[in-house]
TrEMBL record:
Entry keyword S-adenosyl-L-methionine: no
Protein name: C2 domain-containing protein
PROSITE patterns per the UniProt record, alphabetical: C2 (PS50004)
Source species of the chain: Electrophorus electricus
GO aspect biological process, one term: calcium-ion regulated exocytosis
SUPFAM superfamilies: C2 domain (Calcium/lipid-binding domain, CaLB) (SSF49562)
Length: 342
């Protein structure tokens, strides 16, 4: 439900994607911000550190029509526990499908575990070129949530062999502490019209969302909140797409934000799973604004640097920090200046 608690009227409406342009504000220097390609997978990732190596063997079983993955061992894993060791196990997906997920046994207090476990992913040989093998290495913890150590993604399954016989592969484990890949990604564009004081966030699509329902799918919709000073002023949502992990929306959400307020606000984007019975659940979140981190901040700055131009990026979804977060609190924005009369 909408609560009008703000003293500032940052009014919003949902409109079709097309819109007219306005005059540039001209105080932000576009040359400071590089344009990145829309579909860039690398664009949102900073150079990654590695933490040990993972070895596995791949082959294709024509009779079973399945990709055979044997997880062999890991070497030189980092210590995640205060005892100076870790309790590693490996979780494995054949993306984009998430329904079928395997994991190895946990190896207690071992930084060089020998797994030697075999997993079969039913998949047609012709389909293998569209699939991605994703390994996440975790440290098991008895009383707290398990720490993610890192991940290995194999984009091209034919990179190393034709899979007609077992091929052993060693890959560096890339440091990663969030399950970004596990929650999926969202593509949206941001566009700001300074003279009109109008910001448009267009939710374009999502991919590889986490399955939240027992059917192995989700019913995703996207909720966008305008945040000011840690408080949620207003929220809007897209339509719900039933039973898909790769929804396409192309829905624009408009916020009226005068140029003098643009430094004070940010947007929280939550991908939700609709449930007919019970509470809707958060699949993942991301944030954009001057106080966001990484791509969330860069995307915002790029929007301001290129007024009237929709800027589009893929964003990895992060774990929702939980209800305690300030997202859910209500309040008003600290007295911004009244709109100037021309
Ligand atoms: Ca542990
Ligand atoms: Ca659902």
């Amino acid at each position: 439900m909408e609560k009008n608690v703000s003293s500032v009227d940052f009014s919003m409406e949902t409109l079709p994607v097309r819109q007219s342009s306005a005059v540039s504000i001209g105080r932000i220097k576009p040359e400071l911000y590089k344009q990145k390609s829309v579909d860039s997978e690398e664009g949102n990732k900073e150079p990654v550190e590695t933490c040990g190596k993972l070895s596995f063997a791949l082959s294709y079983d024509y009779e079973e029509q399945a990709l055979v993955v044997r997880i062999l061992k890991a070497l030189d894993l980092p210590a995640k526990d205060f005892t100076g060791t870790s309790d590693p196990y490996v979780k494995i997906y054949l993306l984009p499908e998430r329904k079928k997920k395997f994991q190895t046994r946990v190896h207690r207090k071992n930084l060089n575990p020998v797994f030697d476990e075999l997993f079969l992913f039913p998949v047609e040989y012709e389909q293998l070129c569209n699939r991605k093998l994703h390994f996440s290495v975790y440290d098991f913890d008895r009383f707290t949530s398990h720490d993610m150590i890192g991940e290995v993604v194999v984009d091209n399954l034919f990179e190393l062999s034709d899979l007609s016989r077992e091929a052993v592969v060693w890959k560096d484990i890339l440091v990663s502490t969030t399950e970004s890949v596990d929650l999926g990604e969202i593509m949206y564009s941001l566009c700001y019209l300074p003279t009109a004081g109008r910001m448009t966030l267009t939710v374009i699509k999502c991919r590889n969302l986490k399955a939240m329902d027992i059917t192995g799918s989700s019913d995703p919709y996207v909720k966008v909140s305008l945040i000011c000073d840690g408080r949620r002023l207003k929220k809007r949502k897209t339509t719900t797409k039933k039973s898909t992990l790769n929804p396409v929306y192309n829905e624009a959400i408009i916020f009226d934000i005068p140029p003098e307020n643009v430094e004070q606000v940010s947007l929280s984007i939550m991908v939700m799973d609709y449930d007919r019975v019970g509470h809707n659940e958060v699949i993942g979140v991301c944030r954009t604004g001057p106080d966001a981190e990484g791509l969330g901040r860069d995307h915002w700055n790029e929007m301001l640097a290129y007024p009237r131009k929709p800027i589009t990026h893929w964003h990895s979804l992060c774990e929702w920090p939980g209800r305690a977060s300030s997202f859910e609190s209500q309040g008003s924005c600290p007295s911004p200046k009244p709109p100037q009369t021309p």
